[in-house]
Amino acid sequence: xxxxxxxxxxxxxxxxxxxxxxxxxxxxxxxxxxxxxxxxxxxxxxxxxxxxxxxxxxxxxxxxxxxxxxxxxxxxxxxxxxxxxxxxxxxxxxxxxxxxxxxxxxxxxxxx
Length: 112
What we know:
By secondary structure, the chain is mainly alpha-helical. Helices cover 54% and strands 9% of the residues. It has five helices and two strands, in the order H-H-H-H-E-E-H. The radius of gyration is 14 Å and the shape is globular. The chain starts with a helix and ends with a helix.
């Protein structure tokens, strides 16, 4: 019974991301969750944590941001800022909309 309840909570959390994009790939969802839990992270830290190459991470971060490939609109959940220590790097964090989705996910999973 406990397993069913936990899986139901997990499903509800995934539905928060599907409300943004009904066909959101799991890898992109994982990227969103990583950024939500590691504000100010870099492409390298995301890539290392998720075990994917930087080009894949970059594509997922762009899709979560304002503009996806070929100028196509992104999801508007992630923003980037230039790293003040190393201007060659970007630091990623959530937009207000991204924070709302992250909060909804946390609530669905029984968090505060």
